[in-house]
Structures are given as structure tokens and as C-alpha cells.
Amino acid sequence: MINRTHALPVVRQCQILGLSRSTAYYQPTPVSAADLGLMRRIDALHLDYPFAGARMLRDLLRRDGHAIGRRHVATLMRRMGIEAVYRKPHTSQRHHAHKVYPYLLCDLEIIRPNHVWAADITYIPMQRGFVYLCAVLDWASRRVLAWRLSNTLTIDFCLEALQEALVNSGTPEIFSTDQGCQFTSLEFTGLLKAHGIQISMDGKGCWRDNVFVE
Question: In this structure, what DSSP letter does residue 178 have?
Fold first, then answer.
């Protein structure tokens, strides 16, 4: 687009084309031979250790005698288009076929136990991977009524926590959750309805709606 042999100056050509002058004068910097060697080694290590991130690859490279930092490794990984392969936590994935219930706690004064319960799922990092934690909490007293751990995001451990809370602590008037597919499932909402419990769900992306259990 820029013709350096044209009678118009390069600056004027940039103005006509709406380009920054730095674009016209930019010269790409070739990758150094040292970085090319590191990238080849990172590629080989990535094949052997696909779960390794920038920190682990840095340590492996240092064992080979390369003086390199984590940020440099991360830069080279981005340039190569590779990243650590591992199962990532996604605790609140909505199921679009499930019904979403309205939020019932707006301006509601909650001062007594068993008025409102809330539940949420989080994950706990372990030495290898992580586990999921589902907790049921009484909104007024902040007491954890029941909890369960699981290494998968199936519905069963959420149901078990809810069932234990119902057996040991009675029945709330309202049960509040986010819009995660475990809580919108027919099994979970059906258990709440069977006990005559009103169902309340946060707005999409509104974590403050369920702030105490969050």
C-alpha cells in the first residue's frame, strides 16, 4: 500500500490511507538464534510434559543449563501457540435447557435461621489437579449446614449435601443458588419443590446476589 518510490512523501501517503507513520517504518525483528534453540527445546519438552506451564518448563530448561526466567518462557510459549494442557475448573456452567428461577432476596430482611439457605460450588487446588466443594449455608447464622467433595462436577454430590442439610437442620423457606447446571437440574430443583421450598437464583454474572456463600 505504501509506495516508497512515489512522488508523494511517505508521511502524506500514511495520512491518505489513515495509517500511523510507525506502521510504514516498522521493520520486523527476526527471532534470535538463541530463542529459536529455546523454542525447539520447549516444543520437545511440551510433547513429553503437555501439562507443564511456564514455571515447570523454566525449571526443566534450567536443568539443561539454560539461564531463563518464567516470563521469557511464557513469551516464547505464546509465540509458539502452546499452553499447558490440563482440566480447568468451570464450576458455574449454565444449561440452556434448564429453567432459571427469579431472584427472591432483593430487599428481603433475613434475620432468622432457616429463612434462607444458599449453596455454591468452588474448587480446592491439590498437588495434582483439584477437587470440587459444594457447601450449603444458612444465610442468617452463616453456619455451614452440610458440604461434600467430589472430583467431578456431577449433580450427585450437590444432592447429597442438600439432603444432609434437610435431614439435620430442617427446611428453609427459600433456597438461593447461582445458575449453574447442577442447581438448575430437575433433580435438584425437584428435591427443593418436594419439600415446599421456594427457589431463588442469582442474576447472570451477579455474584453479589449470593455474596455470603460466595
Answer: -
CB within 8 Å of 184: residues ≥ 6 apart: 94, 95, 98, 99, 100, 201
pLDDT at position 1: 65
Left (φ > 0), alpha (ψ -120 to 50) or beta: where does 196 sit? left
Phi, psi of 5 (to 5 degrees): -95, 0
Tell me the mean pLDDT in the region 57-62.
93
CA distance 177 to 128: 29
Contacts (Cβ under 8 Å, ≥6 apart) of 34: none
Is there a contact between 197 and 121 (Cβ–Cβ < 8 Å)?
no
Q: Does domain 116-210 have CATH number 1.20.120.430?
A: no
The residues, any chain, with a CB within 8 Å of residue 39's CB and separated by 6 or more, are 31, 76, 79, 80
| Candidate from 14-23, 76-85, 174-183, 199-208 with smallest mean pLDDT | 199-208
Domain assignments of the chain as residue spans, ordered by start: 10-80, 116-210
**pLDDT tens per residue across span 68-93:** 999 999 999 988 888 887 655 666 66
